[in-house]
Specification:
about 190 residues; mainly alpha; Serine Threonine Protein Phosphatase 5, Tetratricopeptide repeat; DUF924 domain-containing protein; TPR-like_helical_dom_sf
């Protein structure tokens, strides 16, 4: 049976303090490796069957990768890429706001406890995301242009402007407004 450390050793192959570019880019080989090793865990994680992992910071980190990051890699262009987002936010909210598990992790790893808020279409979650990422400002990987703080602010601006992520409209069966349609033609409009 797969354990949280198996997943973390895969994701943080270069160590838990090192950001890997492959995390946030399309890479078919990386996605295939995720699918082969951990794809069968997505549904049980979404259904709450792995919630016991969240009893310690490293387990929470692994669970949030399964709920928030892996679906985005494995379900690109499909609505199920976002199916476990509400569960991810609930787990992240307990871990970060109630238990402060994030403080037991290095800054690079904390990113994945904060991303469920950045991925939310609720303004309150966006405000929380920015506040959490701003707390990482002393870490060079987060404050650099194009770093996680910059992305948190960019996500927040989109939600403030549209109330949702227009790049999700097609896969979620939503009709784009004329303003969203124009926005979607701009370079870098989707994340």
């Amino acid at each position: 049976m797969t354990q949280p450390d198996d997943l973390l050793n895969f994701w943080f192959a270069e160590g838990r303090t090192v950001a890997r570019p492959v995390w946030f880019q399309r890479d078919e080989h990386f996605d295939a490796a995720i699918r082969t090793r951990f794809g069968a865990l997505l549904a049980p994680a979404r259904d709450g069957e792995l919630d016991a992992w969240a009893s310690r910071p490293e387990g929470t980190l692994a669970l949030l990768l399964l709920l928030d990051q892996f679906p985005r890699n494995l379900c690109r262009g499909r609505s199920d890429a976002f199916a476990s987002d509400p569960h991810a936010r609930a787990v992240a909210r307990r871990a970060v706001l109630e238990q402060r598990q994030d403080l037991a992790l290095p800054p690079v790893a904390r990113t994945f406890l904060y991303l469920p808020f950045e991925h939310s279409e609720a303004m309150a979650d966006q405000d929380l995301s920015v506040a959490l990422f701003e707390g990482l400002r002393d870490d060079p990987a987060h404050r650099a242009p194009g770093g996680t703080i910059d992305y948190a602010w960019r996500h927040r601006r989109v939600i403030r402007r549209f109330g949702r992520f227009p790049h999700r409209n097609a896969v979620l069966g939503r009709t784009s407004t004329p303003e969203e349609s124009v926005y979607l033609t701009l370079p870098g409009a989707g994340f």
